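User: Fold this; tokens only.

Assistant: Input:
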Amino acid sequence: MPKRMSEQDLNKLINTLELTPNDGEHEFLVKESFISEGTPDDELSGRLLVRADKIFVQDPLPGGTPAVISAVLPVVIHVNGQAIEEPTPVTSQDIIDWELSEPPLYAITISEDRLMAFFTLYSPKKFRWRLNNQYSSSVLKVDASIDLETVTGQLGLNQIIVDFEQRGIIQNLNISGIHGELQNPTYQPIPASKGRAAVPGENARLDLFFSETIENEFNEIEGQVDYRSHLRIPSAIRGQVIARKIPIAEGIPGYDVYGEILYPPPPNDITVLARNNTVLLINNEVRALYEGRPRVTGDKIKSFDICTSYLVPGNVNIKSGNIVFSGDVVIRGDVEDNMIIESLGNVYVAGSIYNSTITATGSIVVKGNVVNSNLYSGYFGVMYNRIYNCSKQLIDEVRNLQKAVWLLNQAVQSRNQSVNFGQAVLLLLESKFQKIPQIIKELLSVLTTVQANYHQDLGQTLHFLNLFLKPIQLVDFLTEASLSGVIVMLEELHSGVARMQESKVEVNIGKCQNSTLKSNGDILIHRDGIVQSELFSSGNITFLKTFSVCRGSKLESGGSISAYYVGGESGAQSLLKAKHSITVRKMYHGKITVDRYTTEITEPVENMNFDAETVRMLKLQMESK
């Protein structure tokens, strides 16, 4: 059995290991060179002549060059048995033949979906073609003309039917229509065969019996949140059906003009999961098992639960501490300086927010003001969530740790020695991965707070995270398999937060100053407006009151912006950017961007609706001055 390497030697070996990733391979673009060959200038002295459908060749005189022959469709020239496609020098030694690539008397065309075949008649008769006589020339283009006095063939119905059958077009052949076209030509495409389109099925869908949006007010009665008053917050009572899945309906196959079966595309199904306080019944109904706010999360997999609430009867401050909760957070007072609220649901604040950060995987509703604060809703609530971020950092760090242990073990084995896996991890943590314990401590502080209400069982995850902070247990019990298990648990923790993102979210505030608001839904300002703030919305940004102002701020919307008073007689300008349109009651000065067009507003404008074309024209007018 190999001798165990001492801790001192291990530390020396660790210091020599190169654990930083390589820069990667460089890609090189190889440019191909294209050489264009020139054609020498020849003096042509041979001659060509066309008479009575024959081509005559005269050889060049000494020092001259051969005559050059080409053809104009439908004439095709063969020189020595080979069809030519470009002007070709010939002499009397060459065998020159010609034929006609005659236009067809009719065409059979198939629609792109193969459900229709069309017959187009060009001519019911076949006529003789003759080569046009041409005088002697050194460069000759052979052409031909049709002789309408000489009929060489007559198109018949049987010939056409045989052609259809040879092509395999047999479904519902319109023989009478083809016959009628031969007798009284219109020379227009007529339907000759028709298939039957497949009838698509119906995708599974969800019928929701609750609203996914909220209003900006909520009430509390005797210390309890009243979820039902005026439907300000969507609510459900025990036993209520909150959603129903309508199963897929299979489609009906069809067939094309060739008789081949056309199968409809398979309908898309929906996976429905009933999580906390809900149950999925055999009839595809989702029922509430508890009173609270119903919600649906997830993209490909729709998960239902009843979101409970955490109620703060007064202010959030140093005394109450930061709040991390796996559900809705309801604050009856203000959020005071330097506080953090992280919700895997909605956040409702009856007062104002000062110098704090709010993240919510659902919506954020603030009746009062937002001052020097950051509000992140929906997708952004996930991105700025500490569980999400810390777990992601840990995943990356532990994976690198796993690689480092492997490298260290390889180096030890090359010296015919061995190392305990847990000891190798411990030494690496103390030297090159000191960041891991710090991240674990921060993550544990959050998970310990949220554990009782979290939507996943965190017991095993907490056990292994604590193990990393206990050196003796780490050396004795940590193995390669358990380290891989830690990564799996962290990945589930990370994705679990991501799955809590709600689809229809909003940030709804009264006023904000020196703040940042980000939402993957709408942003609504229901009172005074915004000053010196940055707002980003994947949906629309809407100012609801006619007296609302927007001053010295930057607004970006994936939909539209609707504002009243932008800027003022003095002060910093505002920058408004939207994908679809921007509407203002009055704008003093600033910059407008709609889609990819931008223009400066240097003089006050009133009652303007800016779309991409309006901005483009304004920009052109500004440039022409």
